UniProtKB/TrEMBL annotation:
It holds the Pfam family FecCD. Keywords: Cell membrane, Membrane, Transmembrane, Transmembrane helix, Transport. GO terms for molecular function: transmembrane transporter activity. Gene3D superfamilies: ABC transporter involved in vitamin B12 uptake, BtuC. InterPro entries: ABC_BtuC-like (IPR037294), ABC_transptr_permease_BtuC (IPR000522). It is a multi-pass membrane protein. This is Iron ABC transporter permease. The lineage of its organism: unclassified sequences, metagenomes, ecological metagenomes.
Length: 102
């Protein structure tokens, strides 16, 4: 058989290297993975078969909107997209946290 412990470690290392290389090329984009799945759950419900594709779609739309804002707010200078996602994502995340506690 296959040693699942070693296989799990190898897959984890390969995934970490891939993610690190993508982040090194694109930069850090925060709050997308924290906020968008919660918004998707509010919109489509808790069924993961629907929520996962909805999260991916909404995450893409959110990043496109943030990119447009980053390029046009103080044109011709660009704002880093991570700053835009943080400005929009942090208040949304705080709202979701407070809403959940009530």
């Amino acid at each position: 058989g296959i040693n699942t412990g070693k296989l799990r470690i190898r897959i984890f290392l390969i995934g970490s290297i891939i993610i690190a290389s993508v982040v090194s090329f694109t930069g850090l984009i925060g709050f997308v993975g924290l906020v968008i799945p919660h918004i998707a759950r509010l919109l489509v419900g808790p069924d993961h078969r629907i929520m996962l594709p909805a999260s991916a779609f909404l995450g893409g739309i959110f990043l496109i909107l943030c990119d447009v804002l980053a390029r046009t707010v103080i044109a011709p200078t660009e704002i880093p997209i991570g700053a835009i996602t943080a400005i929009i994502g942090a208040p949304l995340f705080i709202y979701l946290l407070r809403r959940k506690n009530k």
